[in-house]
Structures are given as structure tokens and as C-alpha cells.
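Good morning,

Attaching, inline, the C-alpha cells for the sequence recovery test we're adding to the shared suite. The designed sequence is right after.
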């Protein structure tokens, strides 16, 4: 019996990441598994855009904020991005 875990097949999402207010448009297309966390997606975006993770970030999905909660910023409720998987926040095409 093998000690390796059996790989699961997860649906793959194709995402188009576009920077707003740029001419010409700057965008990247990436494919990620549906079980990718928002934290992992942040890392993928950094690599795809050639960035060095030097700025704060957040995801706003259906009016809810996801990111790294900071106790110094009590005015905005932010859900931790670490355990949130894409399949939990994306329910339809173009979501």
C-alpha cells in the first residue's frame, strides 16, 4: 500500500485578472483548482503579474471583504482568506 495520498480531481477555474484604469489593458489569464484558497490565489496573482507582494491586498466578493485581518483596523470587518476556497465564493460563470 502506497503512503502517498490519492490525488483528487477538482474542477479547474479559468480566471481573467484585469488591472482597472490602464490603457492599454493589463490582464492575465490563469487556471486554478476550485480547492485553491484565496490566500493561495493571492500568491498566484503575485507570480502571474510579476509582483513581489509589497502591498496590502484584499478580495471583495459579493460585498464581503477577505484578506488578512488586522486588529488595528476595526472599522472594516475582514474575513481571513486562509481557509476560504474558491469553490465557496464562486458560484457561477463571471462571478
Amino acid at each position: 500500500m502506497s503512503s502517498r495520498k490519492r490525488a483528487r480531481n477538482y474542477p479547474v477555474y479559468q480566471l481573467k485578472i484585469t488591472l482597472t484604469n490602464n490603457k492599454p489593458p493589463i490582464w492575465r489569464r490563469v487556471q486554478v483548482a476550485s480547492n485553491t484558497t484565496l490566500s493561495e490565489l493571492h500568491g498566484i496573482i503575485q507570480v502571474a503579474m510579476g509582483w513581489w507582494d509589497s502591498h496590502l491586498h484584499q478580495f471583495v466578493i459579493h460585498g464581503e471583504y477577505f484578506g488578512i485581518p488586522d486588529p488595528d483596523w476595526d472599522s472594516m470587518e475582514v474575513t481571513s482568506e486562509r481557509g476560504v476556497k474558491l469553490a465557496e465564493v464562486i458560484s457561477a460563470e463571471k462571478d
